[in-house]
Backbone:
């Protein structure tokens, strides 16, 4: 199978996840870039940030049109993650490839676990600024080091910490993903030199188209069913990456 076809297929799946679930796409983008398209772990995490930022921007337009983006909450949440995202981007280029892969597999398993858990109700009462800032900073650090947008963590955080409803959390998470991804990319210029744009460009294009399909699919299917299927896929990916690195 040609590299172009693999890039288009992988991009479509990433886009479906981002468009339908508001996150999780980059958790599939990185292993697809490594195992299907031959990227190194560092290059894959950098390329993933580019792909996810562009795809999230496209999806954000549709969610904003539907009124599902809480701009002030999203900007404040993302602001706490900018510094950690930039520091994480600097650290990523200095970590061994095996350490990045193991850490990524753990994050993928955590993402699956969060998706399989029942949704937590929104909190009563005012939100503590320190708690919101802590959640935003942690999300930024994960984005910077591992090249993931962090939507799978942002959505439950926006629901549980800021009290947003699910649709608003999904839309707002895209804004947070874009800001964190761009902040991490700002410190990864040294890792962008060897990127294969002939792969990244079609991957990104397919992801953008897939995100629009994912949004339409989410409107027709049960959100829980879609989330559970995706969670089991993530568990399989996490197990494969961990075993491949350790054995």
Residues:
């Amino acid at each position: 199978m040609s590299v172009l076809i693999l890039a288009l297929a992988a991009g479509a799946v990433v886009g479906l996840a981002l468009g339908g679930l508001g996150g999780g796409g980059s958790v599939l983008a990185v292993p697809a870039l490594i195992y299907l398209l031959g990227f190194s772990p560092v290059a894959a995490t950098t390329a993933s940030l580019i792909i996810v930022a562009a795809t999230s921007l496209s999806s954000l337009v549709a969610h904003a049109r539907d009124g599902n983006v809480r701009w002030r909450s999203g900007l404040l949440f993302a602001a706490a993650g900018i510094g950690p995202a930039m520091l994480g981007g600097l650290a990523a280029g200095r970590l061994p490839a095996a350490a990045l892969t193991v850490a990524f597999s753990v994050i993928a398993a955590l993402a699956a676990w969060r998706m399989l858990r029942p949704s937590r109700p929104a909190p009563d009462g005012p939100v503590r600024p320190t708690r919101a800032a802590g959640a935003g900073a942690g999300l930024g650090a994960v984005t910077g080091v591992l090249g993931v947008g962090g939507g799978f963590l942002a959505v439950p955080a926006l629901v549980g910490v800021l009290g947003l409803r699910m649709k608003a959390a999904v839309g707002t998470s895209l804004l947070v993903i874009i800001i964190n991804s761009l902040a991490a990319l700002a410190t990864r210029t040294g890792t962008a030199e060897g990127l294969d744009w002939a792969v990244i460009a079609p991957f990104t294009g397919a992801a953008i188209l897939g995100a629009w399909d994912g949004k339409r699919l989410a409107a027709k299917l049960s959100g829980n069913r879609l989330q559970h299927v995706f969670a089991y896929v993530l568990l399989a990916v996490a197990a494969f990456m961990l075993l491949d690195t350790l054995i």
The mean pLDDT is 80. The CA atoms of residues 64 and 173 lie 12 Å apart. DSSP finds ten helices and no strands in the chain.
